[in-house]
Design a protein that fits this description.
By secondary structure, the chain is an all-alpha fold. The protein is built from ten helices and no strands. It is globular. It starts with a helix and ends in an 8-residue tail after the last helix. The relative contact order is 0.17.
């Protein structure tokens, strides 16, 4: 209990004093996570919608693989990306290893199946409701996709927030491809792992509380901007 109290006091002190290292690490965490979230959403939302409305050979196999990839071990993802981006790897010439870009790539690989799978489930139900109407209107495939995405935007917000939650708390893959380099690739999760390894549990807990608070703040901000709290939608 004393350790938790010390952690809360450490978190409060870091936030109130606007500790430069905390601000830098927090902003980097947000930048990496939000960038990965945007990229993953651009890929996953159309993919999930297409899988819901399009019938093609091996469609069930693709859906099954997508659902299976939701449980990809982050450390394995990090290891694969490390091999690809290392000097001996096929993408080593790009020099992306131990950079925020490598961290973004790892997070995109981890959260894209999650967002796409949730999107597919939501769009499948919407497609069952809109199928006859859109077919009778002779809507193109693009129009069908855009209609479903627009009408299901609030459900898709849940998928995006689920992806954000998994990305912001990721540590294994980030540690492998980012290296936890001070003033370069250190984010809140890797900083927590570092402080825990050093035995500074109070500071680690403080950083953990800051991470939780930041995640809650981002979720509330997204809900406020999208208007989901209005008109009894919650």
């Amino acid at each position: 209990m004393n350790t938790i109290t010390e952690g809360l006091l450490s978190a409060a002190k870091l936030v109130v004093t606007l500790d430069p290292d905390l601000v830098e690490i927090s902003l980097r965490s947000l930048r990496v996570t939000l960038t990965a979230l945007v990229v993953a959403s651009v890929i996953a939302i159309p993919l999930g919608t297409v899988l819901a409305i399009q019938r093609f050979r091996y469609r069930r196999t693709v859906i099954a693989l997508l659902n299976a990839f939701m449980g990809l071990p982050p450390v394995v993802v990090g290891l694969v990306i490390y091999v690809l981006l290392s000097r001996a790897g096929p993408l080593g010439v790009l020099g992306l290893l131990f950079t925020p870009t490598a961290m973004v790539i790892a997070q995109v690989v981890i959260i894209t199946p999650l967002i796409a799978s949730v999107t597919h489930q939501a769009m499948r139900d919407l497609w069952a409701d809109y199928h006859d109407l859109l077919i009778s209107l002779n809507a193109t495939k693009r129009q069908r996709i855009m209609t479903l995405i627009f009408d299901g935007r609030r459900t898709l917000l849940t998928a995006v927030l689920a992806g954000f939650g998994r990305a912001i708390g990721e540590v294994g893959a980030i540690m492998i491809v980012g290296g936890n380099i001070d003033h370069a690739t250190r984010v809140l999760t890797t900083a927590i792992a570092l402080e825990t390894g050093k035995g500074d549990f109070a500071l680690a807990l403080g950083l953990g509380f800051v991470l939780i608070g930041m995640a809650i703040a981002v979720n509330l901000a997204i809900h406020a901007l999208s208007g989901t709290e209005r008109e009894g939608r919650w």
